[in-house]
Amino acid sequence: MLHIESLDFEYAARPLFRQLSLRLGAGITWLRGENGTGKTTLLKLAAGALQPHAGTIALAPPGSGAGPAIGSAAQPLAYRLQSYYCGGDTPELPWLTVRELLDLHVALYPATDAALLEAELRAFRLLIALDQPVTTLSLGQHRKMQLSLALALPVALLLIDEPFNGLDAAAVDYLRAQLADPARLARQCIVLTSHVEPGVPLAQTVEL
Q1: Can you name the residues that pair with 29 across neighbouring β-strands?
Q2: List of E strands, the chain
Q3: Which residue from 63, 147, 148, 155 could staple onto 120, CB 3.0 to 4.6 Å apart?
């Protein structure tokens, strides 16, 4: 599904990636590496939030057959409709409530099943926080809000940075069960970073 070809990227003249090529299919890929090796940066590049200095990133969603892949630079809107980056960043709209922030994301992904999103929020015990300002959430609640979206959005490419950070044991167990769902593994390319063993079925492991 995800095709990265001859990728170059650097920060302030510090090379991070040189001619990196990856082909990732359906299922879960564990992106491993020491701090500073570029794991989060690669997820953001794959999400279309950053653009490579050279090379291409393209996505061929399941069911696309022999049709052309969607390029992150050539077709940015179409690409983002098929991808979602779930990181640890604080939203840049702090005046919104949880409900308003979720509604904003659902508007960006119009094929979202509202009932499925509600089910994820219920499973993470976050329904009681819907009318709170986002800034009042604890670290764990903030993470659960992001993960509820990640699990509910109808995307082909799901990118999750350190998914288990800040979660209680029950939430970790639930997340692992959702990620291990065979139907999800068949329809999504999931790329995650984690400093601990993910505890989910892996299609492959990539070392940076």
Answers
A1: 191, 204
A2: 2-11, 14-24, 27-32, 54-59, 70-71, 83-86, 157-161, 189-193, 204-207
A3: 148
The closest of 7, 11, 37, 88 to 206, measured between CA atoms, is 37
List the beta bridge partners of residue 5. Answer: 56
What are the residue ranges spanned by the domains of the chain? 2-207
The rounded Cα 198 to chain-centroid distance in angstroms is: 15
Question: Of 138, 66, 149, which is closest to residue 105 (Cα–Cα)?
Answer: 149
In the chain, the amino acid numbered 7 is L
Q: 17, 50 in Cβ contact below 8 A?
A: no
End-to-end CA distance of the chain: give it in Å, rounded: 20
C-alpha of 179 from chain center: 12
- pLDDT for 147-162, tens place per residue? 999 999 999 999 999 9
Tokens of 161: 């940075």
Q: What is the pLDDT of residues 167-202, one digit of tens each?
A: 999 999 999 999 999 999 999 999 999 988 999 999
Burial class, 72, CB count within 10 angstroms (exposed 0-12 / middle 13-18 / buried 19+): buried
Integer-rounded Cα Rg, in Å, for the chain is: 17
Cβ proximity of 189 and 157 under 8 Å: yes
Please determine, looking at this structure, whether the domain spanning 2-207 carries the CATH number 3.40.50.300. Answer: yes
Residue 100 buriedness (CB in 10 A; 0-12 / 13-18 / 19+): middle
pLDDT of residue 15: 84
